[in-house]
């Protein structure tokens, strides 16, 4: 019985600790809880447009390289289909191996292109996120917010804020002004709006498989 009482008291202590931590700031008068949409804010920054343009240029370059290799594979495959029946077993095996190597090369290029785009986007996005985060910190301190919550939890997730009674604590315009963007010149920030994600990298084009069809061997 004594042991159960000790366990109960420890559990109560663990539960009460976060409650005290949450109520302490409120006692000092900091009761404002603001919200924003980080994806929306990022989409309105000039740096975001520059980032998107650089990603599109890089993607076009990678697609071009993959397309050229794919074209080479297609031409060699068509030649193989046309002349395969007249080839000796040794030459046919060599051509098939060459086509298989080209297919493997294309698949590797696609994988590397995707990884390269993701890495580049992360590198370009990191300073933008840092800048936005600094602006949020400044707005929170200057306007007496206890918290500023992100209303969008990310692509494929449920938004953190499902209902807001008014726009009074919407900190989006304050954050945009802190970042040097005039909110009156951009589309009004709507709490229910969910802009396109800025973290997903575009996928490289995947060409059709180039595995050669079985050809009758020369007798």
UniProtKB/TrEMBL annotation:
Segments forming a coiled coil: 70-119
Disordered: annotated span: 186-219
Signal peptide: 1-21
Biased composition (Low complexity): 188-219
Database matches in InterPro entries: Chaperone_Skp, Skp_dom_sf
Keyword line: Coiled coil, Signal
A GO CC term assigned to this protein in UniProt: cytosol
UniProt cross-references to SMART domains, sorted A to Z: OmpH
Gene3D superfamilies per the UniProt record, alphabetical: Skp domain
Keyword Signal among UniProt keywords: yes
One GO term (biological process): protein stabilization
GO MF assignments: unfolded protein binding
Family note: Belongs to the Skp family.
PANTHER family: CHAPERONE PROTEIN SKP
Name of protein: Periplasmic chaperone for outer membrane proteins Skp
Organism lineage string: Bacteria, Pseudomonadati, Bacteroidota, Cytophagia, Cytophagales
